[in-house]
Design brief:
251 residues; alpha+beta; Creatine Amidinohydrolase; 5-stranded antiparallel sheet; 4-stranded antiparallel sheet; binds 2-amino-4-trifluoromethylsulfanyl-butyric acid; binds cobalt (II) ion
Length: 251
């Protein structure tokens, strides 16, 4: 069963997402050569707690940090550590919080200093994939329309679509039904209804899509060492179409 959220619940997920996106905005400014990924993590945790939210990843399946920071060939779930960012790094930062019983979750890919043309294009296309997926979050559509849109856009650009990780429903838990893969067939899967909330998170590679997990038990890297990018947002299906949560403008 995929939960359909009411107005008041959407409002709470929206607030949690706004905390996440505010902090990610700060992190994107802080992600310059010389800063360590552990310092970014400490900033995120402090800002989160300051507004009365709780980091959602910390302790989740024993994950040891508040952020996932994945550099270059790291795809997702990179653990913050004393490593310093350097010019040219392509850095995906994923953050989630719990606020007032509801969750928010988003990811951005940042360019540290000057990134190669390949890296810049990869991040841009991955972000476009996310937006294409979000366009499919509307009542009457089907769940797999989301992944189909993501995959089609990435493939057209000649990029790899990671299949080992997926987006997810989100609400009173970080990960809820359904799983939202970044591939699929148009018109397949459960019907999308008003109030369904999805975290959509394409993970796209410049080379092959195969990944493996490092000895730390978390960090997923591309098997061929190619660059990866990751962007994530939360969207709810409304009668007027998709609505992205945690936006800053007044509606
Ligand atoms: N943002 C990731 C996701 O959407 C969560 C990281 S999993 C954790 O699935 F264990 F690190 F928290
Ligand atoms: Co997520």
């Amino acid at each position: 069963m995929i939960p359909c959220r009411g107005e008041d619940e959407i409002e709470k997920i929206d607030r949690a997402c706004r905390v996440v996106r505010t902090v990610l905005g700060e992190l994107s400014e802080l992600a310059v050569p010389g800063i360590t990924t552990a310092e970014l993590d400490a900033h995120a945790e402090a800002q989160c707690r300051k507004v009365g939210a709780t980091p959602a990843f910390l302790g989740y399946m024993e994950y040891p940090a508040s952020l996932c920071i994945s550099v270059d060939e790291e795809v997702v779930h990179g653990i913050p550590k004393r490593r310093r960012l350097k010019d040219g790094d392509l850095v995906s930062i994923d953050f989630g919080v719990r606020l007032d019983g509801y969750y928010g979750d988003s990811a951005i890919t940042c360019e540290v200093g000057t990134v190669t043309e390949e890296g810049r294009r990869l991040s841009r296309v991955t972000r476009e994939c996310l937006l294409k997926g979000i366009e499919q979050v509307r009542p009457g559509g089907h769940l797999q329309d989301i992944g189909h849109a993501v995959e089609t856009h990435a493939r057209k650009a000649g990029l790899g679509v990671v299949r080992d990780f997926a987006g997810h429903g989100i609400g009173t838990r970080l990960h809820e039904e359904p799983e939202v893969p970044n591939y699929g067939r148009r018109g397949r899967g459960p019907r999308i209804e008003r109030g369904m909330v999805f975290a959509i998170e394409p993970m796209i590679t410049a080379g092959k899509a195969a990944v493996r997990v490092l000895e730390d038990g978390w960090t997923a890297v591309t098997r061929d060492g190619s660059l990866a990018a990751h962007w994530e947002l939360v969207a709810v299906a409304t009668d007027k179409g998709p609505r992205v949560l945690g936006e800053f403008e007044n509606r």
